[in-house]
């Protein structure tokens, strides 16, 4: 069985969106729709600090991870550099779900006022594994490949944000990989 972890090509972004939809049913970003997800993952892959890796089993995308080499200012930079695409998506949300824009902005500007956070670290933005590939080591392989890639580019710290409550599987996965909870915050 051929397994590979590599950069996602631009023509594979729709497959990333399908895996995201499969892995994150009911999560906030998924509810924003496939067009938003496509704009988001495409802009991450194009950004100078963005990393978008895919897990391929028999040449088929079965998982992905999106990250940045520098958390500070990354999301605002994504929007600035791709403002037309984000404006189109925001306009559609404004008409159908105006509250979603407020929540999205709060997610992009997360923080806890009691914690000093300079954003001078890499950040795992999203990691998703298709249902049929869960339990095969796909998540572990992608996380290790991402950590190696970031370390090789001079990044010595990696952070991530995930839902803490009612998300035991994800929290357990990260803890099993050596991650620990540093602080919590409320986005909505």
Order of helices and strands: EHHHEEHHHEHEH
Q: How many helical stretches?
A: 8
Beta strands, count: 5
Low-confidence spans: pLDDT under 50, at least 5 residues? none
Counting helices, strands and paired strands, the structural category is alpha+beta
The radius of gyration over CA amounts to 16 Å
Percent of residues in helical segments? 40-55%
Measured between the Cα atoms of the first and last residue, the distance is 43 Å
Largest sheet: 5 strands, mixed
Q: Tell me, briefly, the overall form.
A: globular
β content, as a range? 15-25%
The strand order across the widest sheet is 1-2-3-4-5
The whole-number mean of residue pLDDT values reads: 84
Describe, in plain words, how this protein is organized in 3D.
There is one protein chain. The chain is globular and about 45 Å long. The chain is built from 8 helices and 5 strands, in the order βαααββαααβαβα. It has 188 residues and is of the alpha+beta class. The chain has a 5-stranded mixed β-sheet with strand order 1-2-3-4-5, with helices on both faces.
